[in-house]
Amino acid sequence: MSISKERNLVIEKRKERGADFSGSKVDSFLAVASRFDECRFEKMTIGDACFGGGVSDSEYYDCSFDGSKFSATAPGCARFVRCSFRNILIREFFGDKVEFVDCIFSGKLLKGYFNGTISENVSGCSGRRVNEFRGNDFSEMELIDVGFRTGIDLACQRLPSGPNYLYLPEAEEVVKEARHQVIEWKNLELRREAMLVIQVIELALEGRQKQLFLQTKDLMPKKSREAAEKVFSLLRQVGEARSKSGANREQRDQ
User: Fold this and answer.
1) Which of 106, 156, 186, 249 has the fewest CB within 10 Å, making it most exposed?
2) How many CB atoms lie within 10 A of CB 18?
3) What residue segments make up the domains of the chain, in order of their start?
């Protein structure tokens, strides 16, 4: 481990067990090809974190990041298993190559995404093209402008609930039905803005993403807010109708 005078914390090709970095305030954190078992990264303040530099995963098992604040614009190749992220503030997290298994979250994530597949135009992690992402608990996490993309199975996660969120387990069918209804709207300006919102949502379905988890309070251009609210309301109605229809079919088949 080394800490430079510029307050950059760098850990390279090490195996740490029970190490405690809690309370550190650093401009950057970089781990390279390292493994951490039962380590504490609690109440840290990190300007920008790269949890796995290079092409080899850095791994974190049973570690705690509780109470920390950080941004991770390029978190790198990293794997987190049974880690705790309680009461955290993540300003940005763009998880192209990050795996999470059986982790628990609470606090707030302001902007970012998690990918289930590593894009071909992004360098992989030692040849890995799929990110394992299952068993995670986000139920107490406030998510703002956060996407689960490219093949993450949301049925294998616990997600937040409430009026600010919209979970669509049959997303492709629901969005398609909403598009058909929006096309029939008579208000041309509202219809045009609504179609733009629909197109943004359809982009989230690319890369084999079957379910969608939308935050209905995402920041939208002012001129699109009315259309966005109506689209989210329509998606909720269509989703609930499909769910009721499916439940009725199951009852009849029993």
Assistant:
1) 186
2) 9
3) 1-160, 162-249
